[in-house]
Task: structure prediction
Amino acid sequence: MRRVFGLIGEKLGHSWSPRIHAALGCRGYKLYELSRQELGDFLRRPDLGGVNVTIPYKREVFDLVDRVDPGAMEIGAINTVVNRKGELTGYNTDIDGLKYALRRGGIDPSGKKVAVLGSGGTSHTAVAAARSLGAREIVVISRSGENNYDNLEKNADTEILINTTPVGMYPNCPAAPVDLRAFPALRGVMDVVYNPIRTGLLMQARELGIPHAGGLSMLVAQAKAAEERFFLKSIDDAKIEAITASLARDVTNIVLIGMPGSGKTTVGKFIASLSGRELIDIDKAIAAQEGARPGDIITARGEAAFRRIETDVLRRVCASGGKIVTTGGGCVTREENYPILRQTGRIYRIDRALSELSTRGRPLSAGGIEGLRALFEARDPLYARFADVTVKNDGTLEDAAGRIWRDFCENTGA
Result:
């Protein structure tokens, strides 16, 4: 009998679970959207091998399994059900994933005060994980509890922060549930959100030099733990890293910044040809939205008005990943554009000699070489601030594109 494996929930939409489990060896893993009325019969089908369980059934399955693993019992949620000769056992592998992500990020709760943001199901997992890892003190911060977002100063001594709320999740990104500067003693930040892979919270942690971990490796690690229970086999943690890196590459944008006329659009076209990715030119997206070219908008309405429009378009385009995004030369002049680009992107600066820059049809580049030099001197530190990598465009455009694509494939990860 071919056994059934998959993910059950009420409304699943797009899920990465089939791809992750296929990479772990379970190629028949499928998505099953079930109503409450269908849940019991599905779990009792004789060909069931095992399933993962998501919202809203993580508690409901307690009454439908024969045995509950002590870890799932402590957390109060089941996310994995395994059928062994007709006996259903419920487990919680979310805690395995969360603990793996903490270790991966170099975050050790042992002997420290841990604050958990949110009081939902994943909050219980985070509390159990922190407790099992030896946290000295654990507090839960919620909207209306004793510890809430209006009295964060009560827990300013927090050393490890774990976000279990959906704040910052696609498409409402790069929002963050708290300002990390409210916790000056922080030594580690974990965010269970995995889309985008760099949430507002994680980007701030990076800016502040605080060790941090995201939800993507947690998602893969919990799937690996479930797979081990499905098939009673051990899977090397190297699989987690390989799958996490593959997913991260697929959902990360290649963002090109640089001086007007530096070759961003043409380099982007070559990368699109190499990668098969969609290319989105922000200036063209603005023109399509406004019915006027960027230069004409700047001339008619002023640069400040154009920059506001540019930010709105960047926010819309960069909310999702997997694309090549070529930006206007001045996008770096607004600091709020950095997290918009960074949340889903690896940012490449295209650097070209001033004498080689094209100025045709570019009102802000007018004034000859002296005008370009003044523009460059104003923007150079901003490009350096935004860029993950600087690529010299001093050879062929194909060569610059190839170097970017190789770097992206080798260095993109969560």
Observations:
- The chain has three domains: 4-92, 96-215, 252-411.
